[in-house]
Amino acid sequence: MNQAVNVSQEMLTVYAPASMGNVGVGFDLLGAALSPIDGSLLGDRVMISAADFGVNFSQVGEWAHKLPAEGKDNIVYQCAEFFLYKLDRKDGVNISLEKNLPVGSGLGSSASSVVAALYALNEHFGKPFDEQALLGLMGEFEGKISGSVHYDNVAPCYLGGMQLMLNAQDKACAAIPSFDNWYWVVAYPGISLSTAKMRELLPSQYDKAVAIDFGRNLSAFVHASYQQDAALAIEMLKDVLAEPYRAAAIPGYTDARSALAELGMLTTGISGSGPTLFSVTDDLATAEKAKDWLLKNYISQSGGFAHVCKLDQLGTRCV
Questions:
Q1: GHMP kinase N-terminal domain spans which residues (predicted)?
Q2: Which of 3-12, 54-63, 154-163, 190-199 has the weakest average pLDDT?
């Protein structure tokens, strides 16, 4: 590619929503984007404009202090550097990350930064990459942070809704129907957990019966989603691969799951590798009660929060 690529002359601001990996039932294969019902933005933003030369990077936001102090160590800087090299640009970009998601939260924090950055760069340079190519780049760059390439955060963050990972030759994922009347209560307690360390808690091999349960639950959940059978979907929305090994490593999770069931929530699970949890209901009043309980009993450190959400059907966009 060469410098004939069109360049946006305006300042672009891109928002990439938080996401739940796994969604309980679909370890590494299911993900969903989140949108708080109060209208607040739960996700990172990236601002980009043209520069004379190189990458001029800055980082702001509530969680910026948790990122590497040296700009060149930031994945957003590395995304910009990649774009300039790939397009053989002799000019540059001003690019700023507004870090609104906590690191190691189980809400797709690294995916949000990567997706916002690559989407913004692609828009700025006139869309040189199509949707599937850009999604591939997003997975590759997010994998540099999480340690391996998984699309269950980047796909819903980028495309919105609930996404099933396909890993087919020409298609990484596909949207599946969701339940419009479900409320997803998410609560982040304020602590950080390493995705890599949480993966180390999982066994290297599983019993055949567990593998069969996993396949049945996920396929039945997808079936129920297409049939819009909410009762069946809730029954199948359980994690037999990761939660049994991770629950004890998340302070207060087991107690919270029991308390939320007593409040009338339909099911509760771990968002990604934690420590954020999600809990589902089809009743707004119950969702608000659950949020209040979590704020009082699950949040353990400053910076923790709880939101009542619907799924974000828009995904990443210019704002």
A1: 74-161
A2: 3-12
User: pLDDT tens, 153-169?
Assistant: 999 999 999 999 998 88
Instruction: Say whether 105 counts as a known binding-site residue.
Output: yes
Q: Which CATH number fits domain 12-176: 3.40.50.300, 3.30.70.100, 3.90.1150.10, 3.30.230.10?
A: 3.30.230.10
39 is in an annotated binding site: no
204 appears as a binding residue in the annotation: no
CATH 3.40.50.2020 holds for 183-310 = no
To the question of whether residue 111 is assigned a binding role by annotation, the answer is yes
104 is in an annotated binding site: yes
Q: Is 108 annotated as a binding residue?
A: yes
Least confident of 110-119, 188-197, 251-260: 188-197
Q: Tell me whether residue 60 is annotated as binding.
A: no
146 annotated as a binding-site residue: no
pLDDT digits (tens, 9 = 90+) for 65-95: 888 888 899 999 999 999 999 999 999 999 9
Q: Is 40 annotated to bind ligand?
A: no
